[in-house]
């Protein structure tokens, strides 16, 4: 009888020891798994950061190469010649318009027309045209107007400027055109009873 009891106690003890070992292993396994997952996440994060840095570096290098090429092209750029035979004169009703003409420039895609702005005290671009003429409409007739023109090439860069041309204020029929500043008159066009006088500075 004692032998049977001892045997049962021994078996129960072994069973308890086995269960305790399984719990311990499960506990160790569960404790280890988060660490492995965390390490794996860190590795993936480091890899993504490295790839992003390499991509940014490549894009930065490409941008620098493009800027370098553009700078080299500009440095090698030869400006277009200034349009020749640039002339202006008043026209239209009461001479409110100013007509401009010039010769074509080789390799020019367009031309920029500039007029002096008395408020800004500087020349401003008033038009970009492909033709070799321009009509500035409804210009103030009580003051002189100054203009110049530049040619624009395929890169969008302007060439040399023409000489500045000045047209006099409107003169009443029978009046005398007023000379503006020290500029000598270069063109006189009489249209009816109204005189049109342009000057070259």
Give structural notes:
This protein has one helix and ten strands. With 201 residues, the chain is an alpha+beta fold. The chain folds into two domains: 1-76; 87-200, Immunoglobulins (Immunoglobulin-like). Strands 3, 4, 6, 7, 8, 9 and 10 form a seven-stranded antiparallel β-sheet that branches. A three-stranded antiparallel β-sheet has the order 1-2-5, with no helix packed on it.
Total DSSP helices: 1
The count of domains is 2
Summarize the main sheet. 7 strands, antiparallel
Residue share in helices?
A: 25-40%
Shape label: elongated
CATH class wording of the largest domain: Mainly Beta
Indicate the CATH architecture of the largest domain: Sandwich
Mean pLDDT comes to: 74
Structural class: alpha+beta
User: What is the CATH topology classification name of the largest domain?
Assistant: Immunoglobulin-like
Which helices and strands occur, and which strands form pairs?
Layout: H1 2-76, E1 87-91, E2 97-101, E3 110-117, E4 122-129, E5 133-136, E6 145-152, E7 158-161, E8 165-167, E9 185-191, E10 194-200
Antiparallel strand pairs: 1-2, 2-5, 3-4, 3-6, 6-7, 6-8, 8-10, 9-10
Give keywords.
201 residues, alpha+beta, Immunoglobulin-like, 2 domains, seven-stranded antiparallel β-sheet, three-stranded antiparallel β-sheet, 10 strands, 29% strand, disordered C terminus
Question: Would you summarize the structure shown here?
Answer:
The protein has one helix spanning 2-76; strands spanning 87-91, 97-101, 110-117, 122-129, 133-136, 145-152, 158-161, 165-167, 185-191, 194-200.
